Amino acid sequence: MGTPTIAERLHGTPAHGVPRWAVRTAYAITLAVLPSCLWRIGGFIFGLPLLDHGPTPPDQDPTSFDGGWAYILTLSVVSEALAFLCFGLVARWGEVWPRWIPLLGGRPVPVLAAVVPAGLGSAVLMTFPYAMVMFSLGLNIRGGPGGMITHGWQTVVFWVSYLPLAAWGPLLVVLTVHYYRRRTAS
Length: 186
Hints:
The chain has about 190 residues and is an all-alpha fold. The chain contains seven helices and no strands. The chain is elongated, with a radius of gyration of 20 Å.
């Protein structure tokens, strides 16, 4: 075993028997989530012209919206953190609890403790294309009028930022099935 790479230090050493494609899939998930996070932060927190904010009431900051900057930042950080957890399906820390965790450290991770949350998460993420269809129809996620407004290049940037998210659910399904098969085969 050589010196761990930067990626291994950040995400953990791949577990024994994990093929390279599975590790790359975990990286693809984290990278698929990143553009949408950057788009939200840029458009809503920094007020970049990524969407039409519409007329602003005189007593309101033009870069604000109903959810507030804390919501957007939290949503983006939580999204990336959940995407990072996909590495648990390919890394050693997804098979054996890290030693720093009280009472569990060093013990094997029960297969279902990883598979059930990953399966539920992938099921929820598979509904994301619905939101994309609603936006393309000019509707909000509940089906009512008043979706975000983009024009020209803004629309292109939005789709380039958000379309990769549609891959998160299917990629997570593939990793979850692989994890389950690998862990139950031994």
